[in-house]
Structure formats: C-alpha cells, structure tokens
Amino acid sequence: MTTTTARAALRARLKSGELVVAPGVFDGISAHLVRRLGFTAGYLTGAGVAASGFGLPDIGLVTQTEMTERARMIARVLGDVPLIADADTGYGAALNVVRTVQEYEAAGVAAIQLEDQAFPKRCGHLPDKELIGTDEFLVKLRAALDARTDPDLVVIARTDARAPLGLDAAIERANAYAEAGADVLFVEAPQGTDEIERIAAEVKAPLLLNLVIGGLTPLESAERLRELGFAIAIHPSLALGAAAWGMVSGLAQLAGRDPQELAPSSPGDFFNLVGLAEWSAAGEKYAR
User: Lowest mean pLDDT: which of 42-56, 67-81, 83-97, 113-127?
Assistant: First the structure.
C-alpha cells in the first residue's frame, strides 16, 4: 500500500522529536474541530466511540467492524491530519489482529494501538483489568507488524500491567514490546508524577501518555512531557467530557432538574451515564 500524507506526517513528527498532541475524536464534528484548530493529530478514542456512537461503556462491547467504520469516516474528515486509532485487544487472537490491522490500514489510519488486556477489555482507568501473558501479546504484536503493508503505519503497543502487576512489570513489558518492534510504547495509567518520570527514564522507545480527565494519571503539561521526551500525548476525554457536560446541562435545564445530579467526576461516573452499572451486573450474573 502506498503511504498516505497523514502517515508520512506522523512519521516525520515522531522523527523530529516534537511532541504530538492528539485530542480525542469520536464523531464527525470532533474530527472537523481538531482539523480546523490545527492539531497535529487526532486520537480515535474507543471509549468515546462506545459512548457516543453506541451508548455503551468502554468494556469491550464494540466490535472491530464498528470501530473500523468510525475510523474510516474520521480519517476522511481529518484528511492530512494523522489519525491515531484505538484498536483495543485487536478483537481476538493473532489472526483477528491480522484482519484488524488490514482493515484499519485500509480505512486510512496513521497509527494503530493494541493492548495486552484479556478480552473483553476495560477502560484503562477502571478497576479489575485482566492481562494476557507477555509471550501471548508478543505473538499478537508480531502478527500486527507482519500484517501492515505500509511501513509508515505506526504500531503502538500498550500495556495495562501497572494496575494488576505494578509499575516494574509494566516497564518490563513495555521494553519487551519495544524490543519486538513496536514503534511507540504506551504504559497505561501511571499513578503519579514519579511514575511518569520512571517510565520516561526506563522505557527505551518513543512513548505515549494518556491524559484522562478525572483518571489515575496526573494531567502533566505539554511542556513537561516535552522535557521528559514523550513522543505523543493523547487527550481522549477532553472534547467528549465537554460535549457530555453540555448535553447534561442543557437537558437538565429543559427538564427542570439540577445537572449536578448527573455530573461525572471520574471515568466510572461517565460510563454510568451509558449503563456501566447495568452491564457490570449482567457480567457478574453470567460469570456466576
């Protein structure tokens, strides 16, 4: 596949060492605004697509085909602005990862992000995440790298090991994924500035940091992340949270209700607006 202008732009930006700031995009208007405001990339947030597109919490309920079609539309709207796209766990085993990479690449994304959670995954800032083994993820990562036909397509490897296994294990996994050929490494949900600094010092590869409003990770400034040498900063919840709060405020006023009744202060609160509690209860029922 011939590379796209957007992929070439993202590769050039990463090579330059300049921080890529990528706001979350999840629908047509958010993508248009990111392009019109001059951002150097957009981040297709799986949580945002689940909530805004399908009325679902980010717990692995959205399918690969649903995400691919959203990626295709948003990549078209962004044009030459690179789209960094969340692909969760690759939606299955290594063979599923191959198809996911093929479909995302054909949809026009500039980068695809894959993670080492077990399926069904959970938002990285929710509790009770489960992982697959390092070796199993390395097989999926190799499948992703082999599946791309455009070498400019950036493959991002994310580890969620910080919460269940601790930061040492997360750094060890990240370095293993870097050694296997991942272009960018993403250690999800570090829980303090000291942990962000350790990741920057100890992971030997370009790094991505996820800045979620109300999440577990401190909201470091772009200037500080540049100093630490991060390559990409994603802000998946910024536009999504503002849009949701605008809807809550307007609809509560129309209904004669206090909008604070539904005001989310954490990712869990936000996902409860789209049924997290009910879906979690169903999951516990069938697990028993």
Answer: 113-127
CATH top class, domain 5-287: alpha beta
Q: Pull the structure tokens for residue 253.
A: 């006023």
Give the Å distances, CA to CA, from 211 to 12, 44, 144, 208, 263.
23, 14, 25, 10, 20
**Average pLDDT estimate for 72-80:** 98
Query: In whole angstroms, what separates CA 252 from the centre of its chain?
Result: 30
Q: What is the largest CA-CA distance in the chain?
A: 57
For residue 88, give the 3-state DSSP assignment. coil
pTM reported for the whole predicted model: 0.95
Contact in structure between 205 and 173 (CB atoms under 8 Å): no
Mean pLDDT within 64-79 = 98
What pLDDT is attached to residue 1? 58
> Per-residue DSSP letters for 177-246?
HHHTT-SEEEE----SHHHHHHHHHH--S-EEEE--TTSSS----HHHHHHHT-SEEEETTHHHHHHHHH
Q: Give CA–CA dist 236/217, Å, rounded.
A: 13
How far is Cα 262 from Cα 268, in angstroms, rounded to an integer? 12
Look up tokens 């307007």; give the residue.
250
1 vs 155: CA distance, rounded Å: 16
Which tokens hold the place of 217? 């990770």
What is the tens place of the pLDDT at every residue in 258-268?
999 999 989 88
Residue 104 confidence (pLDDT) above 90: yes
Rounded CA separation 134/105 (Å): 25
Burial of 243 (0-12, 13-18, 19+ CB in 10 A): middle
pLDDT of residue 237: 95
Residues 6+ apart with CB under 8 A from 211: 217, 219, 220, 233, 234, 235
> Distance of alpha carbon 44 from its chain centroid, rounded?
7
